[in-house]
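User: I'll paste a sequence; please echo it back and then give the predicted structure.

Assistant: Echoing your sequence first, then the prediction.
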Amino acid sequence: MKRRIILTGAFIGMLAIILGAFGAHLLKKYLSVEQLVTFETGVRYQMYHAFFLLFLSTRKEFTPKALKTIYNLTIAGVILFSGSIYLLATKNLTLFDSKIIVFATPLGGFLLILAWLALFVNIFKQKS
């Protein structure tokens, strides 16, 4: 499980850098400043959670079940939160109907909060 967490953290971190560069260099010709800021928010939160996963992989005291729960919440949260932000920020460049994902961003954010809460609870339950 720890190998999967490290690989996923490295992958979504790498993808955040690629998307950040894509936004900074290619999308700035096509998006408004507000849309670029929105896109960068998705990149930033994706990178935060790449680091979060790498941190999670260093924890030795968590049960496999706790690791899997936090991992799954984080992955689902990043996909829904950052993914929907990318789609919303670039909606005028695609034929994608953004009304379809209106609840994806807050749901993704909620899942990320739950991942952090699960981390907190697991560490709080430790005796030392």
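The mean pLDDT is 93. The CA atoms of residues 30 and 93 lie 8 Å apart.
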